[in-house]
Amino acid sequence: MPLTFDDLVTRARSLAEPGRRAVLGIAGSPGTGKTTLAEHLVRALNGPGEPWVAHVPMDGFHLADVELERLGLRDRKGAPETFDAAGYAALLRRLREETDGDVVYAPGFERVLEQPVAGAIPVPPTARLVVTEGNYLLLGSGAWARVRTQLDEVWFCELDEEERLRRLVARHEEFGKTHDEAVAWVTRSDQRNAETVAATRERADLVVPVSALPRIGTHT
Fold first, then answer.
1. Domain residues for 76?
2. Helix count (H) and strand count (E) of the chain?
3. Domains: count for the chain
4. β-strand partners of 122
5. What are phi and psi of 92, to 5 degrees?
6. Would 219 be classed as within a structural domain?
7. Domain assignment of residue 218, yes or no
8. Is the separation of the CB atoms in 117 and 110 below 8 Å?
9. Considering the domain boundaries, does residue 198 fall inside one?
10. 21 in a domain, yes or no?
């Protein structure tokens, strides 16, 4: 039988065991619906009661534009080398280990500003499952290899290539680029990143088709 969203909810819930905090990773190329899946999962799992599932995106570990300029990487924003992968891995380790103390704060990412924001996401001690999503969770090189060791499972979102590109262009237009600028960025930068991510698909614990999601927007 085809995989359904209810199947995903059941599988995610099973990761949370008594006495420990689990971390679920959702990977995939830009535009495949990682954020949408994470948001739907968190909403479905938390339900009307006290929240016990937290959402911590990888995007908060983007390097700031001023640092990208210093490194000469401004035109490669979104590539693996434009993130603080070691910092992300360290946060995931904290989330797994620091479960009985204070709130752990994670950085967020402001889409309008296109900049990371420190301390934007609180993860309370009551959170028994953390859902994190990003492009490079399955990369095996450099500090990215440390990320995978902190994840109980990693799911890989898959989407028809034409639809994925359409969504990416629409997303860039939504946040201020003209159509031509959006197409140029997707072709020059996003597509290179997508090829890097696609090569990690076989390392995933589960491949999630778009048909398993109730609704997909233009998010990552």
1. 5-211
2. 8, 7
3. 1
4. 105
5. -60, -40
6. no
7. no
8. yes
9. yes
10. yes
Rounded to whole angstroms, the Cα distance separating 83 from 87 reads 9
Tell me the mean pLDDT in the region 23-38. 92
Cα-flanking dihedrals φ and ψ of residue 7, to 5°?
-60, -40
- The CA distance from 158 to 33, in Å, is 8
State pLDDT tens for residues 184-201.
Answer: 767 776 788 888 999 999
Answer yes or no: is pLDDT of 217 > 50: no
- The alpha carbon dihedral of 205, 128, 6, 106 has a sign of negative
In sign, the C-alpha dihedral spanning 173, 155, 16, 149 is negative
State the residue for tokens 């060791």.
149
pLDDT at residue 49 is higher than 90: no
Give the CATH number for residue 54.
3.40.50.300
Question: What does the pLDDT read at residue 190?
Answer: 74
Distance CA 144, CA 87 (A): 10
Predicted TM-score of the model (pTM): 0.88
